[in-house]
Amino acid sequence: MAILKIARMGNPVLKQIALPVADPTDSEIARLAADMKDTLLDIHSNGLAAPQVHVAKRVVVYRVPAERIPAGSTMEPVPWTTMINPVIEPLSPTKKDIWERCLSIPGMHGLVPRYQHIRITFLTLKGKTVRREARGFHASLLQHECDHLDGTLYPMRMTDLSKLAFDSEIGNTEFFVRRAPEEFD
Q1: Which sequence spans correspond to the domains of the chain?
Q2: Which end of the chain is more exposed for a tag (fewer CB within 10 A), N or C?
Q3: 28, 67, 100, 145: which is the annotated catalytic residue?
Q4: CATH superfamily of 12-184
Q5: What is the pLDDT of residue 177?
Q6: 100: annotated active-site residue
Q7: What's the pLDDT tens digit per position in 61-112?
Q8: β-strand 78-90 against 117-123: which pairing, if any?
Q9: Phi/psi at 42 (nearest 5 deg)?
Q10: How far apart are the C-alpha atoms of 113 and 157, rounded to whole Å?
Q11: What is the pTM of this model?
Q12: Is 59 within 8 Å of 21 (Cβ atoms)?
C-alpha cells in the first residue's frame, strides 16, 4: 500500500464536487481505500475523504478508535469503515458548535455548527447498501468528511470566523475549549 499526499486548502481538487463511484467493487476503489487507511494510520488521524488525497471520487475512510474516546463518554468505538457515495440526512434540526481541525488546513482549528443526529447511507466495497445513525462526535466527523465530497471545507461552514485560530493558540480558552465527554456521545 501507499502513503498518499494530502491536498491543502486552495488546491482545485478540494473545491470541486467529487464524482460518484459507478462500481464500488472495482479493484481501483479497494486500492484507494486501502491507501487512504494506510495514510490515516501514518498520520494518526480519524477520517479522510478521497478529494483530500487528490482523487475526486465520493469515497471516505474513517474510524473512531477506543483510545480517542474520553472517559465517561457513552460513545462506542467505530471500526475501519469505507463509505462509497455516502448521503447524509439530518434526523434532528439541532446543531451544536464543535471544534474541528482538518488535514487539508494544517495548524488551525475552528468552531463549526454540526447536526448532532444524522443518518448516513452508503455503499461498501462489496456493493452492499448500509444505513447507520450517528450522534455527537461521530455525526460531526461524518459531516466533516462528506463535506469534502462537495467541495466544502470547515471554514465555509463557520458562522463566526473570529473562532478560527491557529493550534499554537490552543492555550487561549477564548478560542479553544477541551471537549467534554458528553460531546462525543
Answers
A1: 12-184
A2: N
A3: 145
A4: Peptide deformylase (3.90.45.10)
A5: 47
A6: no
A7: 999 988 888 788 888 899 999 999 999 999 999 999 999 999 999 999 999 9
A8: antiparallel
A9: -65, -35
A10: 7
A11: 0.91
A12: yes
